[in-house]
Each structure stands twice: as C-alpha cells, then as structure tokens.
Amino acid sequence: MKRFCLFWLFIFGAGTGVQAQTTHSEIVRQLAVPSPSGASVTVKSHCNVILVQGSASQKMRGYRVRIYFDNGQDARSEAQAAINKFQEMYENVPTYLDYTAPYFKVTVGNFLTKEEAIKLWGNLLNVFPSSFIVTENIELSEFIDQKAPEKAAQKQLDTPTEDSAEETEEPIL
Questions:
Q1: Which helix or strand (DSSP H or E) is residue 98 part of?
Q2: Of 21, 71, 98, 123, which is least surrounded by CB within 10 A?
Q3: Is 59-156 in CATH node 3.30.70.1070?
C-alpha cells in the first residue's frame, strides 16, 4: 500500500511540475491558434494586467445603482425623467433603461467593487432616496469603455489653463 501511494504521489507530483513550467508566452501562443470552428483569442498583456479579447461576449459580476424601479401607469415617462435628471448630474456615467414586464428599471454606472457603487449611491440619496445597489453581469467592454472618458476628464483637470480663473467642483464618484 505504501508503494502504491508513493507511485501516485510521484505521478501527480511530476504532472504538476510539468504544468508549472508552462510560460506565459506558451499560453499566449496556444490561445492564438484558431479552433476548428474558426474562433480565435487575442491576448494583450500590459504589466500585470492581461486583457483577453474573443468573439464571445464576456461578462463578469459587477455593481450598479438602481435609481428608478416602478410599474405604474406613468412608469416609462418617470424612468426617462430619472435618466435625464441623473445625466445632468453625471454626464460621463452610463445609464441603462430596462423593461422587464411589468417593471421599468433605471440603473447607472459600471463598478467592479461594491465600494465604488456605494460612493455613487451615497451621493445620489438626496436626489434619488429610493435608490439601491444591484449586482449584475456586466460586459467587460463596458468597464473598458467607461474608463476612457474618466481618464480624459482627469487629464483635463490635471492640466491648468490660463483662461480658467474659476474652478468648478465635480461630484466625486
């Protein structure tokens, strides 16, 4: 019995040792080979972040703030009014209108962590007192696309201009 256990330990130990020797470039090369169906994967790596792009939709768990949820007679127009009011306050934060019979729902933002969603939710409680945080499956592209306007806005704030004598405060997300 002792020899039998040692044999399996040797087999599994050797197998894991071979897997540990697989390098990053070998994995990227293997993923780039098209499958028989024609699908392929492109891997772009930058520092410690690896972004995988494929033809299938990729979703991950994220958080949004629901600012409107109702099924009343005027729910559609009230949902649109909530979207307009929110976009006046935060023009760079994405808004989503969803109709799941019989409810109209308006959710805002794309957040990876609940803490990020809580920041926005705390800022919205005075205007949208019935708002709450929801968990949703969000497309990865929505996280990536959302960062571009934020970076541009931050770059614009970081570079002072001589024309702007007056500074304006933006809400912090």
A1: strand 95-100
A2: 21
A3: yes
